[in-house]
Write a structure and sequence with these properties.
Distance between the termini: 48 Å
CATH topology of the largest domain: Pyrimidine Nucleoside Phosphorylase, Chain A, domain 2
Number of strands: 14
Helix content: 40-55%
Strand content: 15-25%
Length: 441
Amino acid sequence: MIGYEIIAKKRDRHELTREEIDALVRNYSSGKIPDYQMSAFLMATYLNGMSFQEITDLTLAMRDSGIVLDLSDIPGVKIDKHSTGGVGDKISLILAPLAASMGVTVPMISGRGLGHTGGTLDKLQSIPGFDIFISTDRFRSILKSIGVSMIGQTEEIAPADRKLYALRDVTGTIESIPLISASIMSKKLAEGIDALVLDVKVGNGAFMKTLDRAVDLAQHLVMIGEGAGKQTIALLTSMDEPLGQAIGNWLEVAESIEVLKGKGPTDIRELSVILAAYMKSMADQKISYDVAYNIAAENLDNGKAFSKFIELVKHHGGDFTLIQNPQRYPKAALIKEVTAQNEGFVVSMNTYEIGMTGILIGAGRQTKEDSIDHTAGIILHKKVGDSIKKGDCLATIYTERETRLDEASRKLLNAYRIDFNAPDKQPLILGVLDKNGFRSI
């Protein structure tokens, strides 16, 4: 089949067959279809959408572009978690060792930053020596030994998605529900899990700006997962402001360490505990969600989750002494405070613009070839609902890019909306969706 004909068919809003989708994915993976043609297909899909059957076929074609892991010989129920992406979203760094400390087996395959959002792999690689590209044999060995391993896609696991993921990041096609669904689920169905918990972000800093769009995406993800025989549940969570205070790779690792020690921002802790409770209650049907929630909270406070994180870093070759003493990590050369120009309350934050500021100072990528400065980032001192006096420090920027510092400061300042009336507190969790439908909580 000729790539041009498949692209033209999707451009003209016709439904593709399974054979056409298989051919497209197979030929792109092998290099027979170049990036510029696949970019055209991605944009046609973004503009015209896909039927659920097309999305399912695309997911399976991407899954089958590589191997499907068999983890049946590893004890326990294997459960992963995936977030659709946000700003300051370092939950996986906390959740994976937390769930493992509760007896859940967590084989986690993560991605890099996408658009304005951060990526778990970039954060892990800010830990010197941490190897995210271990062999599948080593992945299995670590899972057997400590119950958790966090890696990137290997050459063997959904290689078509790895190529498409990088291309979507630079072609303005990130927000497409069909492409997001196929990307997420192809990896998850290839990694040998028994169940999956999804964190679908909603708000001005998410790819899904409205609850309706987020529910639509969650329904697609849950239907694909359940159709493949994997118990799947999705939480709809707010991304109208960044999670926690830290944005940027090592800064987010350092904040995760604080949470794993029983401290840190309340929103990060709460979401981590809730997701861990769902993972534990799915892994062990005899344990209720409420009991699992209490176990998760205890394991953050008693040091078990932090000890598991140190084990994880050790087994992946990372410098665990920096996890024990994060203050030893190198600091960015340039540090600048952004101060309030008037008084009042923070009534809203433009989370997307804050994420883009992170890219501007080196904490993310503008092109797929860009390197990341692991020390770059932002610490937010004020968030929605906080009272402000003129001159108060809203945020601190850390970077090596002197030429971008003034622009980043203006961008960050403009991301804050300050008014005299305090805003109503918005919920962190907007609802839960499973095979039985959506429910508010």
